[in-house]
Amino acid sequence: MVQRIRRWVLEERRLEFPLVGVTLAALLGGLLSRFLAPSLAGVFWAIAYFAGGFYGVIDGAVALRNRRLDVNLLMLLSALGAAFIDHAEEGATLLFLFSLSNALQTMALERTRQAIRELLDLRPAMARRLREGREEQIPVEEIRVGDRLLVRPGERIPADGQVVAGFSAIDESMLTGESIPVPKGPGDPVFEGTLNGYGALEIEVTCPASDTMLTRIIRLVEEAQAQRARTQQAIDRFEQRYAWAVLGGAALTLLLSGLFGEPFDRSFYRAMTLLVVASPCALVISTPAAFLSAIAAGARRGLLFKGGMALEALARVRVVAMDKTGTLTENRVAVQAIHALDGTGPDQVLGLAAAVEARSEHPIARAILEEARARGLSLPEIREVEARPGLGVIGRRNGDRIWVGSPRLFQQEGIALPPEVHAHLKAAEQAGRTALLVYDGRWRGVIEVADRVRPEAVEAVRALRRLGVEVAMLTGDHPAVARAVAGTVGIARFEAGLLPEEKLERIRALAREIGPVAMVGDGVNDAPALAAASVGIAMGRMGSDVAIESADVVLLQDDLRRVAEAIALARAAMRTVWQNLAFASGVIALLVLLTFGVGLPLPLAVVGHEGSTLVVVLNGLRLLRWKGMPATDSASPAEGSFPQVPSGGSAIRLPGQPADRSHPGR
């Protein structure tokens, strides 16, 4: 009970606004009692000082225990000094406005933590577990890896898992910022806290509650809001020296005024006013007001910044280096073109290849089968399938053999390639694609497959260039593939065939040549480069755990356009910080000049001081309404596929981003 009250009063500061009300009531009572009952004025001033200085005394005591001098002590000294020279009403006014300002700051900065509360609210309290054909309601804390859960339409997913039965569309907007529901079916991942759409789903839990995506996001945001940026650290160090300087300045003002014959009360009053106007409240709050708001705004849009340092570094970035596989591309092989030969139709070429590859789990085989299913092709029955690892597959139909594979398969079989096939192979190599040959005694065709370029990659590169940021691609893939991808997305600077340690060295070289570097990656091999870059940015949904842990910024939605958005938000945060610092410094300078020039009254000094602090806080809170970069045209060559190489014959062009056909009937 005592601990709960202590947390309620001291940590959660639930008494701040009630005490402000008590201070105001006591202040008004004291002012009225001077005319109606002078003997009671002292009681009202004592109440005002106690209520108005309650949290200031606590914070000041903590600072003194840590051998620090802070703003609270300066304010308390000024209020006590006012009472000492019989200006208790002005000291009470000071404490009322100071406590009101602090309460408003607490309320305002509490809004920056709303993102965490919204994420916590996503967690359902109960789940439906399926056991031996029966459904039982259990608290989510009892869910274990391997449990089968039933999620009905309109319910939130209670744990990270994989769909084992059913089809639906999941609203993942609170986690990723993506407003369009994501189609889900057997084999697809689902995440705790996301909202199920129209269909019932049966899911298998794949992750303990302590390591779900939602839990990790909350942990990252909490750590980010607790971390101090370099600018904030510098201001905190400056605050200590500055506070001592203000205290020394007040003492010097009192001493020099006395030496020049000024009455003690007037000199002391001016010194107390100086303590107020020169106090660095607005300076100290300038950075956290902006950075906490930016971190919260980013979290709502699927951008996780691991603290103010990440924001600060990202705002200075001049070049973005990107990995290829899984970053610029989807890390998903797809059929890009079919070149039919010898009078064969494209669907017949695809059908033969799919029939032979039907039992294979190779990514290229899956891509061919997926395209055949998308076209609704009926496949001929193939018997006696013989796999040649690394080369291809040979099947038999009606006694006739069918070869589907790379050129090396035919070299091994002693089958010569005609000039027309050689021409298609050369074109595929130049386009950075893998060619699959189909032969059954006659050359039926050439199928080109490649990793699909993300449809938003071109727009992402353009958005970065509009921000004045250069883009480079670093990949361990073959130079021909790298050249094709770079040409598709519009990246002029790229390097291929790099090992992880070589990527790291290229990052350092870019930093020396151009300036601060942000590295975008998703794999384990990207972790060293992510850690070495000025800012590491990880693709959160498809990224490896190592990459996410090594990064400073995590994109919860695998959308490259969010990189430019993150940089724009970081720059907006830094602009706000510098605006706040300039404004706060200007107000302090003006109030100090007025104190010595025209003898600024203490109440007006308090209004100017606390008013500037609130302006700084509100300016920082504007970032909570940040809506992202303006939308741009997303036209892109090849619609996400590699550049199409012109060819003769009956070659057909396939769209690089076909509609998702993985869920029949959707």
From TrEMBL:
Residue ranges of every copy of the P-type ATPase A domain listed in the record: 122-222
UniProt keyword list: ATP-binding, Cell membrane, Coiled coil, Magnesium, Membrane, Metal-binding, Nucleotide-binding, Translocase, Transmembrane, Transmembrane helix
Keyword Transit peptide: no
GO molecular function annotations of the record: ATP binding; ATP hydrolysis activity; ATPase-coupled monoatomic cation transmembrane transporter activity; metal ion binding
A single Gene Ontology CC term: plasma membrane
Regions annotated as coiled coil: 214-241
Compartments where found: Cell membrane
Transmembrane segments: 15-37, 43-62, 242-260, 272-299, 581-600
Membrane topology: Multi-pass membrane protein
Spans annotated as Disordered: 632-666
Similarity comment: family membership: Belongs to the cation transport ATPase (P-type) (TC 3.A.3) family. Type IB subfamily.
This protein's name: Cd2+/Zn2+-exporting ATPase
Lineage of the organism: Bacteria, Bacillati, Chloroflexota, Thermoflexia, Thermoflexales
